Amino acid sequence: MPITLKDVQFSFDELEKPLFEQVNLVLDTQWRLGLVGRNGRGKTTLLKLLMNDYAYSGTISSTTAFRYFPQKLLHPDWPVYTAIDEVMPIEQWKFERECQLLQLEKDIIWQPFEQLSGGEQTKILLAALFCDEASYVLLDEPTNHLDAQGRALLATYLKTKKGYLVVSHDRHFLDEVIDHVLAIERSQLVLYKGNFSTYRQQKAQQDHYELAQNKRLKAEIHRLDRTAKEKAQWAASKEASSHDAQVRADAARMMKRSKAIEKRVAAQVTEKTKLLHNIESVSNLTMNCLVRHRNPVLRVKNLTLSYGDVPLFQPISFELYQGEQLAITGVNGSGKTALLAYLFTKKFDGEVTGEVLISPQLTMSMVKQQYEYAGTLKAFAAEQKIDYTHFLTNLRVLGMERDVFNVPIERMSAGQKKKVAFAKSLGQPAELYLWDEPLNYLDIWNQQQIEKMLRHYKPTLLFVEHDPQFIDRVATKIVELKR
């Protein structure tokens, strides 16, 4: 069954130009469609348009209903099944079946939703959506908060489903679960057949062709323009200085040739202007890391965090030295986020055993998984005591458009908010950085920028990340949390 978009146009009031302009597409609900593009290009907004959450011009028609992930629960403190059933009534046996396919414990549906780990919450919401077999599911970043095992399980699960649209920046995951790609490029939406690697290969070939064409046309325009000027100057001088009829006739012919060359130049310029509109460019990020001369920067001895008699993880011990990047790994629910938060704040609402040796004068910077920032970027920079110019520069390098600078933070996309949090951390002078899943919501170009920056600056860093390739390329040490 088709989903038809005809002359769709949408713009946020704060932006200078439309986010979408004259979009015409026909999508098939049998496709496993991947929606890709840089942060702020409108991936989530497009899903919201399909859900009819925003007013737009043009038409979107489909005989299929849509379901959106992640759906909002009105009472997350309620037991899972009760909270889910309130917002989208589902039969319990179907819900239990989908939960079992996602390898969730049977009694989890009676536990309070808000007490589950991020990965468990993700699986619960996905299980609920796929109970509705008649709807086309729109998945907005479903791999966030899932560990490597959870992402592999989700990929296997999605392969059993008939059709959906998924937004993700996980390249390997997309290769596993999609058969079509809808790319939001810089100037247009382009549909490709195949998985993400196929799309990237075709996109690279197109970019290479356009760069080569641009180089050729630039040289040709320069050559023709110089030739036209030389002929025009010769013709003008001969016509002005000579009374010989033959010479004046030759000058007229030369001027005619000059005009013809000018037309060729104009045609080449027109062709050149059609190129490079969708080529992405990235620059280098900068950070304000400080050197800690006393080592180790952090020492942890037999540390564990517990709720009552239930430890989140077995006791851990490690030392972190200046210039090391230590990855904290472990399955969902093993306490990775709680550990980082405790190291940053020295606060935990359960029991703490073991020892953490860290200087009270140590300057630290934290990127959290969840953040509630609001207001203007200028007010935010002042509140965080970071250099406003450096802050905006890193936001631009991360790909944020200048007109978004005027948008209140609370109205930005998830990816844009993550960039704000990340640029804040990069602008903070710190001896130790604590980053909780730094790649969540950031696009592939940003991920490559971060890797390059870390290799260059070598900050002292403690981070949580589920991407095994990122860990392999960045981490100098790994500590695994085991239940």
TrEMBL record:
Keywords: ATP-binding, Nucleotide-binding. SMART domains: AAA. Pfam families: ABC_tran. The keyword ATP-binding applies. Residues 3-211, 298-483 form the ABC transporter domain. GO terms for molecular function: ATP binding; ATP hydrolysis activity. NCBIfam families: ribo_prot_ABC_F. This is Multidrug ABC transporter ATP-binding protein.
